[in-house]
Amino acid sequence: MDYMIREIKKSEYPLLADFLYEAIFVPDCVEPPPKSIIVSPELQVYLEQFGELKDDRGLVAEIGGNVVGAVWVRIMNDYGHIDNKTPSFAISLYKEYRGLGIGTAMMRSMLSLLKDSGYGRASLAVQKYNYAVKMYQNVGFEIVEENSEEYIMVNML
């Protein structure tokens, strides 16, 4: 499948709300939450004023002129927060584009962008049973902390 990874355009920032919802891990046999969940304060940190802060970075995956995935980072007090110098990741693809290597390519592109921008590390939080844990490890993230539900992972750029 041919895809392109490129910087997100300002006009595409509203798509991040859709991708934030898609990023919510829902185990099999569990009813997904309503889309309105993204207005909760703990999720709004990923979206509020995106693009206005100096550490905001975003990339999208595009197929046939359509955005099918997004990865974005910012320094925020989210689930994967390490400190005020380390950007936290959010990444998602529409379901039909998962498992094709696009997410891995987006992660690698963002990690490269962060390294080239002078960051020393990046972080994320992921639920322990999320299939993406292996992908994060494959691109260099390591578990540095955990709680009953999640791993906090860091990539030393």
UniProtKB/TrEMBL annotation:
Q: Which SUPFAM superfamilies match?
A: Acyl-CoA N-acyltransferases (Nat) (SSF55729)
**Gene3D superfamilies attached here?**
3.40.630.30
Q: Which GO terms describe its molecular function?
A: acyltransferase activity, transferring groups other than amino-acyl groups
Q: Can you give the residue ranges of the N-acetyltransferase domain?
A: 3-157
User: Mind telling me which InterPro entries this protein's record contains?
Assistant: Acyl_CoA_acyltransferase, GNAT_dom, MshD_Acetyltransferase
Annotated Pfam families: Acetyltransf_1
Sorted alphabetically, which keywords does the UniProt record give? Transferase
Top-level division of the source organism's lineage: Bacteria
Q: What PANTHER family does the record tag this protein with?
A: L-AMINO ACID N-ACETYLTRANSFERASE
Name under which the protein is recorded: GNAT family N-acetyltransferase
The organism's taxonomic lineage, starting at the top: Bacteria, Bacillati, Bacillota, Clostridia, Lachnospirales
